[in-house]
Design brief:
Length: 450
Amino acid sequence: MDYTRQLAQFAVQLKYSDLPQPVIEKAKEIAMHAWGLQLAGSTLPWAKSVYRYVQSQGGVAKSTVVNYGLKTSPVHAAFVNGTFGHGFEMDDNHAAAGIKGGCVAVPAVLAIGEQQLSSGMEFITALVAAFEVMVRVSLSAQPELLKGAYQPSGTCGPFGAAAAVGKLLRFDEKTMLHALSIAGAHSSGLTEAPPSGRGTVKRIYGGMAGSNGMRSALLAAEGLTGPDTMIEGDRGFLRGVARNPNPALLTAGLGSKWQILDVHYKIYAQDGYIQPMTEALDRMVKQHKFKPQDIAEIRAGTNQHALDVIGLITEPEDLTAAQFSANYSLALYLITGNAGFQEYTEKNLKAPEIVELSKKIHAEVDPEIEDEWQKTRPRGARITVRLKSGVTHTDCVHMLRSMSAEDVNEKFRRLAKVVISDEQCEKLLKTARNLDEVRDVSSIVPLLTR
């Protein structure tokens, strides 16, 4: 079937009036959450490297870089702001698809929306289109995409960004089809980073996907074309990343089953497979009141795929590696009481008490968690703590808890206030929560810069 064409038709025909209220509210929340991440992330060393690169490239001053206020081309703005948003492992996430969509779509939509003077309703509609397209592309390639060498956001994100940009530029179905096709040629992102424990290149995957998708749409607008079957074809995207793809998932429930509603938010600044471990440990500490010095050993049970991601780095040498190290991250939580933006620091990376405790923590495959992951791919974990007294405590988290709206607000505040004042932060939060009332999204830009 002509799945690429059907996705293009969906994106073009989608109207704000088609969106159920929960979908609208989720899109607004994702945008707010992404802006908080971008503000805090803009202060990090690797983010500043990308900012300096964009500064050096010049470009037509149409779109704004968060925090710094630099005006640059929409493609460059999407790249640097997406890197800011994906820069510290605190993203939104669609667990089954492995898609961190906020760092891909929100920067692309704002960059073009600022240029086009798009309304808040248009912003929301484009954002929903992005999520529905990129999540479905990823789901159609699972579980092999997650198990293989391809990073879902980097590889599938360009499809979503292309759909969003094409939506704001009011593409017809033919041009949107070519935008999605060209996006397939821009698909990239490999999982050698970060489980290898070296390098910061993984930080750019969100920005890379957003800017690649935008470039695809802009090329389509200028007349570049691609094959009608770039996603489902015999030599198309799905066949390239998975031996047994299920292209029917590209359109199953399209327009009625809204994938954006299954997006959750990370509670801690660490890889998604470590999150349920930390949550289980958090519950255990609060219930049993033991201290780090009481611990003899911790066993952290997960699935085999997760172990291959977060179990390989046991002695991290930089912060990227630390955020993908299960034993280090759990030790960090136990010593500091949290594992967020303020805890993952160069100082804590080498703190003797954290390093010593991390040696007592061992990640392993848990048969029940493995079985659950093979069936539905939830992010679950089992933690067993053996104390020096001989007492053992066990807790299991089968699915990471959902953050309430107020939880997300508080997370946004903690992140945004790294850069902007309390007053500006509250204005941005209120504006984002009422994004559907904004007449021109370029009016949001001053709230995102100092």
